[in-house]
Every structure is written in structure tokens, then in C-alpha cells.
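Chapter review: from sequence to fold.
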Amino acid sequence: MYFFSTEKMSVGYDKKPILENIEIGVERGEILTLIGPNGAGKSTILKSIAKQLDLVAGTAYLDGKSLSDISRNELPRRQAQVFTGRLNTELMTCRDVVAMGRYPYTGKFGILSAEDHRTVDEAMELVRITELAHTDFNKISDGQRQRVMMARALCQKPELILLDEPVTYLDIKHKLEFLSLLQEMTRKKNITVIMSLHELDLARKISDKILCIGENGAERYGAPEEIFKDGYITSLFRIDIGSYEESGDALELEPPKGEPRTFVLAGMGTGMDTFRKLQRQGVPFVTGIIYENDLDYPIAKALAAHIICEAPFSRISDEKLEEAKCWLKRCNNIICCRDRFGDWESGNQKLYNILTNMRP
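The C-alpha cell string follows.
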């Protein structure tokens, strides 16, 4: 059973559906991203899950319990929201805003206990905004503002966080920082995230699952490697001026930390999806032997803990093969993304033979 799922869910306004028969399932700790053209209904789905809108039909389940059976008092303890729109925070410090996340746990007078204060401090430390505690919320940058709002959400100790276009107004530095932070929180706290994003390159890299909303409703649902292929994105957004190249993304999130115990044999563009999947899972990895002009190389360089590479247009040297063998001895998980090699890749062919013999 999925942690969050829907069964023939239809959403809309005034009991009139704009999206029907939505079927999704998300595990704990996963990130689901909604993508699609403006006005397709992404925000409507999020507002319906947040119970700001009533479902037109069907059911949504949170940990096996229908959302309709979760009271409005219980919901804020299980689900947090970071939606677009400005808060009225006149004369409030950043810590005051974060502390608002504890109100579902306080009495009717909103008085915070010692435990509530500790939770606020912990949330601010987690998102690295402790130094902003006494700063006026209205005098901080958009990037800092999003971190404060994330800390407020974490203060609710939710199992599910909903975000509507959380990085729209951020520059690329702060987009990467915020989404890396979000990914870190899902791993540390095992929180499920459902959000909408316009940034397709980032959605592709951070998401465990993607739901595509087009003119025909909910069109595709699956892992990024199932969505970003065969020119589907061009069709989804009905691009007829210019083009979108599904393999041409350049930005990457930060690599997983730790000692690598996974070896990936890749090259010829076969490893990109695997590299990104391992990054999403927080699994550090080693990869090789990859030519420096290979399609896999830029992504491997960004995400791998170590990359064994060879100069372009040269045979794989014995030195590089021995380096790969040394790393193999340190790894207990092997992933082969390819099984065919060119004449100059005899080193990779030997490596493949070794990997094949190592498999149970």
C-alpha cells in the first residue's frame, strides 16, 4: 500500500471537474512532481489534496486513510503546505514565522511550550537559517524566505509536504540550494513531497515520480526516465516554435555524500538516468571507464563520487583498467548500463566480463 495514493480522483471547482480519474501512488520519502502547461490544473490538484477544495469525485488516501476522514484539526499535524502568496507578517521576525508551524499543537491561546521552542530551533538549524532568527521576515531575500517557509512546514512535523512552484522567483543558485535542501529533508525525515515545478530540468533530476498534466488531463505518470523520452515533452507542452531537447540538460543537484559502494559501468549516454536515480536515492557511486567526450561524462563528473575517465579517441589504458578493478573490490553493488563495446574499448569489455562473473 502506498503512503499517499488516489483512486479515480477528479478535481475542479463548484463540483465541475477539470481533471478526472487521476491515479497516483507515492511511497514515504519520495518526491512527486506535477508538470504541464500553465492552467492545466496542477495547483488545483495540490489545493484538493490540501483540502482547500473538495474532491469532485474519487478518493485520496494518506497512509491508508481517506482524506475526507481526516479532520481539519488533524490534517495540519500530518500535512504541511508551502503555497504561493505573501503572508501578512508585519513586525514578525523569521523565528516568529517559523513558530507559526507549531500552532496545530498549541492550545487556543497559541502559547509555545519549551518543547515547541526546541522544535522551532531544530527546524531553523535543519534549513540553516538560525542566523536569521531575529531578522524582520519582510527584509530578507526570496531564497531566504523559502527556507523560512520550509522551516515553518517542518515545525508541523508533517508526513506530507505540498509545494506550489516553490522556486519560481529564485535565481539559479537559490533554486539549486532550495531543491537540494528539500531532497535532504526527504531523506533525513522520510517526508513525502508533492509539488509543481515549471523547471523541467530540475523536475527531471529531483523527482522520484512525475505526473504530467496536459490538455487531455493526467496523461503520464512514472519515473523521470519514463517521462522524458520519445519527444513526449514537446507534445505535452505543444511546442511548435523552437524545440525541447530531452537529453540536453546541463544543471545537476549536489552529489550524494559518503563512501561509494556502488559501481556503474556506463558510457555512450547509457548511464545518465542511472546516475540521476542514484543521486535521488542518496547513493554515492563510482563510474567508468568513460571517455571525456562521452554524453555520460558531464553528468558523471557532477554526480559521481569518483569517475574513471579516459582521453577522447584513445584506447583504454591498462592503468585505467587497473584503477577500475581497484574500485570494484571496494564496491558491493554493480550496475551495468551497457553490454556492447567498440574496438577501442577492450578495457571496458574486460571490465564487463569481470562484472558479469562477479554477479550471483
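Two observations follow directly from the output. The domain at 262-358 is CATH 3.40.50 (Rossmann fold). The mean pLDDT is 91.
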